[in-house]
Design a protein that fits this description.
It contains ten helices and seven strands. The relative contact order is 0.14. It has 230 residues and is α/β, with parallel strands linked by helices. The longest helix has 17 residues. Strands 3-2-1-4-5-7-6 form a seven-stranded mixed β-sheet, sandwiched between helices. It has one domain: Vaccinia Virus protein VP39 (Rossmann fold), CATH 3.40.50. The N terminus is likely disordered. It binds S-adenosylmethionine (SAM). The site of S-adenosylmethionine has 24 residues, from helix 6 and helix 10.
Length: 230
């Protein structure tokens, strides 16, 4: 094992799909170098996004549709997206080519969480995380105690965590993990839903994603969970 690699974490799931084509391939070469996140810059988000009044992170942005829509709707907020899947990174580089408030990490969102200062983010989005349905793979699920500890550390009080899933077991898993976190840590996430439609219906300020569209097409009803950090 090479020096410095001992603590490197595994990222599960695919890193590459079809060969890059068309505008996404071009954007990977021409726009990504400008949009790419330098992990060393995370300590000073105000310098990374000059003039921004808020900051957000999307974990596993897939094709980047949600992140690009949010960044377009909120030019005053700096958005960081992390995604190991090269085709998704290229797609977001294309979608964000004219946006000044987006930075992309082609890699593991946990590295972004590790590098962010305490209470630095207003929102974190974890939309349709890989479900890992087999019990022996549950430890790979992104919603987990170690990641919740980091999410709570980097969210400011009142900041929002949004989680979507079309897999009922992952929805209950998320609620159980949040409840365990609230019980064990000196901080709380409060679920904002007051009525079933609050989590069954995607809020107007929550753009859709590619994975969500496939789930709906297949007849699976997603849940849209929002928590605020106390
Ligand atoms: C089921 S897909 C959903 C993609 C997108 N959010 C959507 O709704 O269309 C889950 C994504 O999470 C990404 N992912 C898995 N582990 C990750 C990690 N540690 N950091 C960042 N992204 C990750 C995968 O590469 C994959 O693109």
């Amino acid at each position: 094992m090479a020096e410095g690699q001992e603590n490197r974490r595994l990222i599960y799931g695919r890193r590459q799909g079809r060969p890059l084509r068309g505008p996404a391939r071009d954007a990977f070469g021409t726009d990504l170098p400008r949009l790419a996140l330098d992990l060393g810059a995370l300590g000073d988000l105000q310098t990374l996004f000059p003039g921004a009044t808020g900051f957000a992170l999307e974990v596993g942005f897939g094709g980047g549709e949600h992140l690009a829509a949010q960044a377009t709707a909120h030019p005053e907020t700096g958005y960081i997206g992390a995604e190991p899947f090269v085709n998704g990174v290229a797609n977001l580089a294309w979608l964000a080519r004219d946006l000044a408030n987006v930075r992309i990490l082609h890699g593991d969102a946990r590295d972004v969480l590790d590098g962010l200062p305490d209470a630095s983010l207003d929102a974190i989005f974890v939309l349709f995380p890989d479900p890992w349905p087999k019990a022996r793979h549950h430890k790979r699920r992104f919603i987990s105690q170690p990641n919740l500890i980091q999410i709570a550390r980097v969210l400011r009080p009142g900041g929002r965590l949004r989680v979507a899933s079309d897999i009922p077991d992952y929805v209950s898993w998320t609620l159980i993990e949040i409840a365990a976190f609230n019980r064990d840590q000196g901080c709380r996430f409060a679920w904002t839903a007051r009525a079933p439609e609050d989590w069954r219906v995607r809020p107007a300020d929550w753009p859709g994603t590619r994975y969500e569209a496939k789930a709906l097409e297949a007849g699976r009803a997603p849940a849209y969970l929002e928590f605020t950090r106390a």
